Amino acid sequence: MTLKIAGAPYTLLYVDDVPASAAKIATFLGVEPVHNEATFALFIVAGGKLGLWRIGDVLPLVAERPGSAEFALAIEGGPAAVDAAFDKAKEIGLIPLQAPTAMDFGYTFTAAFEDGNRIRIFDTADDPR
């Protein structure tokens, strides 16, 4: 049996406070959610879907806190764009985990929300993986 995929895959982040996390994502990415309520918010990001789900409402119950995965976005504009995104992340209150640095897949940084969810921004201008 072959699965017939219906639309873009979702990335779901389990968050403590959906409205607060959604506001930060909207400010950081410049994209408003297409669905936004106290328990779940949904963003369409470059054709993909990012859902924020209140951790206490996830079934089956979550055994571990967030932080062992990340939502990653490739951006255009080279290292200068990554540096600017890092500055914006700090301005809106994301917690810097990794300052912009060159890695084998591109120039990148990682930041976290208060609940441990991570977001990585990177530029793949020299390596389109």
Task: Write up what this structure looks like.
The chain has 129 residues and is α/β, with parallel strands linked by helices. It folds into 2 domains: 9-55, Signal recognition particle alu RNA binding heterodimer, srp9/1, CATH 3.30.720; 67-129, Signal recognition particle alu RNA binding heterodimer, srp9/1 (2-Layer Sandwich). Helix content is 20%, strand content 38%. The chain has 2 helices and 8 strands. The chain has helices spanning 18-29, 78-91; strands at residues 10-15, 35-36, 40-45, 48-54, 70-75, 95-103, 106-112, 118-123. The strands form 2 sheets. It has a 4-stranded mixed β-sheet with strand order 1-4-3-2, with helices on one face. Strands 5-8-7-6 form a 4-stranded mixed β-sheet. Strand 3 (40-45) and strand 4 (48-54) form a beta hairpin. The model has no long low-confidence stretch (mean pLDDT 90).
Percent strand = 35-45%
**Main sheet: which strands, in order across?**
1-4-3-2
Overall 3D geometry? globular
The total beta strand count reads 8
CATH topology of the largest domain: Signal recognition particle alu RNA binding heterodimer, srp9/1
The profile of the biggest β sheet is: 4 strands, mixed
Helix content: 10-25%
Q: Supply the CATH class of the largest domain.
A: Alpha Beta
Topology record:
Layout: E1 10-15, H1 18-29, E2 35-36, E3 40-45, E4 48-54, E5 70-75, H2 78-91, E6 95-103, E7 106-112, E8 118-123
Parallel strand pairs: 1-4, 5-8
Antiparallel strand pairs: 2-3, 3-4, 6-7, 7-8
